[in-house]
Specification:
Blueprint lengths: L2 E4 L6 E7 L2 E7 L1 H9 L10 H9 L3 E2 L13 H4 L26 E6 L3 E6 L1 H6 L4 E6 L5 H10 L4 E2 L1 H42 L1
Parallel strand pairs: 6-8
Antiparallel strand pairs: 1-2, 2-3, 3-4, 5-6, 5-7
Amino acid sequence: MPILHKYKDREKYYVLTSISGSIVTFQLTDEGHQKLSKAGIKKEDRFKRALLFDLYRTGEAFTHGTGPGKIEDTNKLQLSLDFPDDPEPESIFPSCSVCSSIDDLHFVEVHDKEHFASIYCSECRKIRSATVNTSIPLPLLNRSLLYRVLTMNNIDKLDDSVKTYQEQLDTEFSSKWEEIAKTKQSRQDTLFESEDDQGKLL
């Protein structure tokens, strides 16, 4: 599970977690730390990987400049004891389709021998810059924007990294609508119960 840590020399926080056998540092924005605090998560607390993914999706947790294995003054032996099995799989986090890094990921439109969409890390974007057209930071890519870009740019082929991320966005979208439907139904049930009670009084 991810663990919340505080930098020794500043009032900033970061998260360490294990992904694909490597220890990964996620830096937190002030807003990201505030969200964890409101959820009751304090320094050195473990928390669910899904919460970290939510922060990552909104840009409040990021890996830019601290890729896998780059740890802030921490004992690796101790870290190996800090990550029990998490109920959410490591695959919840997207990764670069070329090198599997999760550092500074972008959705990219690639014009090479084929025209397709992929997810590249910062290093792979540099190496393949001649073939990269559209490039959007992944935390900014919501479901609506993804489908708009695919349609406007006539991108029909998606590699596995984009397909997986698209499925996550679709699942999140469906879950939100299901929650709205449940809330609406609950309000209707309450209204009907209220009308029944009023009828009994007449």
